[in-house]
Amino acid sequence: EAGVVQSPRYKIIEKKQPVAFWCNPISGHNTLYWYRQNLGQGPELLIRYENEEAVDDSQLPKDRFSAERLKGVDSTLKIQPAELGDSAVYLCASSPGLAGTYNEQFFGPGTRLTVL
Amino acid sequence: SQQGEEDPQALSIQEGENATMNCSYKTSINNLQWYRQNSGRGLVHLILIRSNEREKHSGRLRVTLDTSKKSSSLLITASRAADTASYFCATVNTGNQFYFGTGTSLTVIP
């Protein structure tokens, strides 16, 4: 069974440029999450989707970050414009079911973003 | 911070020894989970313990939960070099908010 797929794996951009990350969750998983992980820290949840609905985006910096999951399957996370402090690894995860709570999550390999 | 905090931040042991890492958190929880992250790779879920459970086992892993002390421990018995990784606890609080801790970096020396 294929795991969570993310692309690209690495991205280097100049500050003020836009960037987008793509995630395809495990087939059949209704819940999708985006996290940001800074070096030496634990992941920080940015947004959680149940199907196409964003049910928790309280920690998403909405002035420059946006996300979508239009058909309730794959998802895109965008930053526009990027700032130096956005350099981090962006992780996508998925989980089955619509329990409304957080159980076992399956993570992708992440996208390492470097903003110069 | 609303995150859990792991202790110690870093741990180095010899292969075959046991490794214990602790997690403390601040608010009442529904469940607590442990994840492993190998260098440069994604996180892998290890075990979930619910607030009404005190201990769970999975292979060489043993997790305890003390809700009165708001703490959990992860014990890895008979450690192997392949156990070298960062270990994170993650809590689901009663407000259904999810937070990862700061992590423990474990090095198992062959």
Alpha-carbon distance between the termini of chain B?
36 Å
Average pLDDT across residues of chain A? Answer: 92
Overall body shape of chain B:
globular
Largest interface: A-B, 23 and 21 residues
- β-strand percent of chain A reads over 45%
The major sheet of chain B is characterized as: 6 strands, mixed
Distance between the termini of chain A: 37 Å
**Radius of gyration of chain B in whole Å, from Cα?**
13 Å
Structural class label of chain B: mainly beta
- Percent of residues of chain B in helical segments? under 10%
What does the overall shape of chain A look like?
globular
**Strand residues, percent of chain B:** over 45%
Mean pLDDT of chain B: 92
The parts of chain A where pLDDT drops under 50 for at least 5 residues are none
Q: Helical segment tally of chain A?
A: 0
Count of β-strands of chain A: 11
Low-confidence stretches of chain B: none
Number of strands of chain B: 11
Helix-strand category of chain A: mainly beta
Keywords:
heterodimer; A: 116 residues; mainly beta; seven-stranded mixed β-sheet; four-stranded antiparallel β-sheet; 0% helix; globular; B: 110 residues; six-stranded mixed β-sheet; five-stranded antiparallel β-sheet; 11 strands
Descriptive overview:
The complex is a heterodimer of chains A (116) and B (110). Chain A is an all-beta fold and 116 residues long. Chain A is 0% helix and 47% strand. Chain A is built from no helices and eleven strands. Chain A is globular, with a radius of gyration of 13 Å. In chain B, strands 2, 4, 5, 9, 10 and 11 form a six-stranded mixed sheet that branches. In chain B, strands 1-3-8-7-6 form a five-stranded antiparallel sheet, with no helix packed on it. Chain B is globular and about 40 Å long. Chain B starts with a strand and ends with a strand. Chains A and B meet through strand 5 and strand 10 of A and strand 4, strand 5, strand 9 and strand 10 of B.
